[in-house]
Amino acid sequence: MAELVELLAAGRSHAGWESVSITRSIEHAAGGFSLVVSERWPGVEAPRQVRAGDACELTVGGQTVITGFVDEAESDLDAASHLISVAGRDKVADLIDCGAVRKSGQWRGLRIEQIAAELAAPFDIRVSADVDTGKALTSFALQEGESVFEAISRAARIRALLLVSDGKGGLLITRAGETRVATVLEMGVNLLSCRVKLDLKDRFSSYLLKGQAPGTDWLSGASAAQVAAKAADPGVRRYRPLVITADAPDIAATLQQRAQWEANSRAARSLTVTGKVQGWRHAGGLWAPNTRVKVVSEEQHVSDELLVTGVEFSLAEGGGSTTTLTMTRADAFTLLPLKAPDAQGAFWTLPAKGEAK
After folding, report:
1. Which residues, including other chains, have CB under 8 Å from residue 331's CB and lie 6 or more apart?
2. pTM for the full predicted model
3. Which regions of the chain carry the CATH code 3.30.1920.10?
4. Where in the chain is CATH 2.30.300.10?
5. What is the DSSP code (8-state) at residue 336?
6. Does CATH number 1.20.272.10 belong to domain 5-90?
7. Confidence at residue 331, expressed as pLDDT on a 0 to 100 scale
8. How many CB atoms within 10 Å of residue 339?
């Protein structure tokens, strides 16, 4: 049985959707939705009054998954039917779409969440962090023409942090999740399909971060002007170095974090495992991004715990409800050095013959 999907907009709850697509991802901070239905549904006499620009809240089985605004509202009328299409995104989308504006454009001695909160305040978007964001930044300045989200993302990269929507209209500063889903996904059992893609074009054998440390009474001259850090990706077997200039002055220890983050996040984005399952829930609740799940597809040499980076709930007339999970390596977006690939060149391993999965 399909989950009840309700859109609260213009002071009224709208349900009975015939077609549903809901996406949430740690790669794209603003979740989105697209809904289609006939203009009226049983039990409601008035036609739907959903307009582009309306504030809205989308729930699945009573659980809020998106809080934001309606971007599009379309009416499609012909002799046989009258369909209403509605699409929208999380409130965080305004940070992605809009430019960063501040009189001075520069901060000194503030933590990343403080900078983010100040930039997000004009949009009435709260900022929270569920991890330690590190020491205050010595200095941070806006770049000409960048969006609010781009500015906050630059600051977040300095401390190897993720920016995601909290689903309730706020921006959450976090890192790769540790929550594990008890359900094992296995091809031919509960995994309807599985696609594995490995793309190495944006990965490099080494990452050299160069920057400047803030000068003090005890640190000056060349020692302050030149700091560097290096991280390696053992999965790239030929010589492919990448040199990156740090976004802001900082200490060498932070540059080392950033170098390792660059290696890990690029390795993560190179591997995409896409799986489809029936329904929108596992044994513990709704599927959600930034969780971990064991995936087994022996023909594709996959038998490992993966990080869920994106979730798409779909409902199509006659097709039932399905969830498409986008996944990558479980060590993605961490600050731990990357492990080397196995002899097959993969970052997962099949169990040995006779070994339990």
Report:
1. 264, 268, 338, 339
2. 0.85
3. 206-269
4. 5-90
5. S
6. no
7. 80
8. 12
Q: CATH code for 206-269? A: 3.30.1920.10
Strand partners, 246: none
Q: Greater confidence, 104 or 281?
A: 281
| DSSP label at residue 298 | G
User: Would you call 328 helix, strand, or coil by DSSP?
Assistant: strand
Q: Where in the chain is the domain with CATH 3.55.50.10?
A: 95-174
* Cβ-based neighbours of 136, under 8 Å, separated by 6 or more: 109, 110, 111, 114
Tokens 């809080």 identify what position? 67
- Tokens 């009435």 correspond to 124
Contacts of 323 (CB under 8 A, 6+ apart): 276, 277, 278, 279, 280, 287, 311, 312, 313, 314
- Chain segment 327-357, per-residue pLDDT in tens: 998 887 877 677 666 544 454 443 333 444 3
SS (H, E, C) 174-210: ECCCCCECCCCEEECCCECEEEEEECCCCCCCEEEEE
Query: Taking a C-beta distance cutoff of 8 angstroms, is the pair 202, 242 a contact?
Result: no
What span, in angstroms and rounded, lies between the C-alpha atoms of 239 and 67? 46
Distance (Å, whole) CA 51 – CA 49 = 6
Establish how many alpha carbons lie within 13 A of residue 242's alpha carbon, considering only the half-sphere containing its beta carbon. 18
User: CA 30 to CA 97: how far, in whole Å?
Assistant: 10
What is the tens place of the pLDDT at every residue in 19-52?
999 999 998 899 999 999 876 545 545 556 789 9
Which is it for strands 171-174 and 185-186: parallel, antiparallel or unpaired?
unpaired
Structure tokens at 213: 């440390």
How far is Cα of residue 252 from the mean position of the Cα atoms in its chain? 28
Give the count of beta carbons closer than 10 Å to the beta carbon of residue 52. 13
Half-sphere exposure in the Cβ direction for 335 (13 Å, CA): 14
Count of Cβ atoms closer than 10 Å to residue 142 Cβ: 20
Contact 21, 314 (CB under 8 A): yes
- Residues 67, 167: contact at Cβ < 8 Å? yes
Average pLDDT for residues 280-299, to the nearest whole number?
95
Which superfamily, per CATH, for 95-174?
Baseplate protein-like domains (3.55.50.10)
